[in-house]
Design goal:
mainly beta, three-stranded antiparallel β-sheet, 14 strands, globular
Length: 283
């Protein structure tokens, strides 16, 4: 399971800011100039990841000549966020074409100050990468109709393990059958007690880790998530969320929890994703 989860995360994280890709085991935490690759608390754009996506979508301008010549692709900009949240040392680490590279740098340089990264309670410099996509309008493909899965109501539940990869879904019941449509959000509940929520929708920043932390099973129908990082304002870092779960069949579960500061119950449905077997090639 761990190998499967790692491969899945690796695929998704190709679209994530590189600060989320750094692997603590294989990379130094800080470079020779005192700039951190990974800090205890990473820098944050004002308003979080959703605000960053909105900023990019509102401010990136597709250069006219590049459009005429149908030039597009992904530009990766690297920069350092200083102790006061300012942007410095901007550079292109993966370019496409001069005008696209220049536009990507312009947008990054005009960003407002970030909340700085923190290490042992002190602000520190942190290196950060952001991918910016340039696509022609006719390259945007209309969303495919969502696949609908149908299951009979009342199936015997034999597998109540929470560990695995789950995909958010909408659910309705028609003629004693569950009709399930999958949504672009994954929840990974690892056997080591960690969890991660990943938004996989198509946007200018690509896939995004929206929440991560640890979890523990409190009873036969309740588990608790402890948030270590969150890109959603309603769910603050450090908060605990008790979630009641009810299996409708082996691969379909309903989560019920209270939305913080609203005292309102919320229900979500998740479908267990079956991953293919992954074999490693011999060296």
């Amino acid at each position: 399971m761990k190998m499967k989860l790692f491969c899945l995360i690796l695929i998704l994280c190709g679209c994530l800011p590189v600060s989320a890709q750094q692997h603590r085991r294989f990379m130094p935490k800080v470079d020779e100039n005192g700039v951190y690759f990974v800090a205890e608390k990473m820098p944050e754009f004002p308003g979080g990841q959703e605000a960053l996506m909105k900023y990019l979508s509102m401010n990136v301008r597709y250069p006219t000549e590049a459009q005429k010549n149908r030039i597009g692709g992904r530009v990766i900009v690297q920069f350092v966020i200083t102790e006061d949240g300012s942007i410095t040392q901007e550079k292109i680490v993966r370019g496409v074409e001069a005008s696209l590279d220049t536009e990507a740098l312009r947008v990054v340089r005009q960003m407002p100050k970030w909340s700085p990264g923190m290490e042992k309670g002190e602000p520190v410099k942190v290196r950060y990468n952001i991918p910016i996509f340039f696509r022609m309008p006719d390259e945007w493909v209309a969303p495919k109709p969502k696949l609908e899965l149908v299951f009979p109501v009342g199936q015997e539940v034999k597998n109540t393990a929470l560990e695995g990869v789950w995909q958010s879904c909408s659910l309705k019941m028609v003629d004693d059958k569950y009709h399930v449509r999958l949504e672009p959000v994954l929840k990974i509940l690892s056997s080591d007690g960690t969890f991660m929520n990943i938004f996989t929708g198509d946007n200018k920043v690509g896939a995004m880790i929206s929440a991560q932390g640890t979890y523990s099973k409190e009873s036969d129908d309740t588990y608790v998530e402890l948030l270590e990082k969150s890109a959603i304002d309603l769910f603050k870092e450090g908060s605990k969320n008790a979630i009641t779960f009810n299996f409708l069949n082996d691969n379909l579960v309903k989560f019920t929890f209270v939305i913080p500061r609203r005292d309102a119950l919320w229900e979500e449905y998740w479908f267990r994703v079956s991953l293919p077997e992954i074999k490693l090639m011999a060296e």
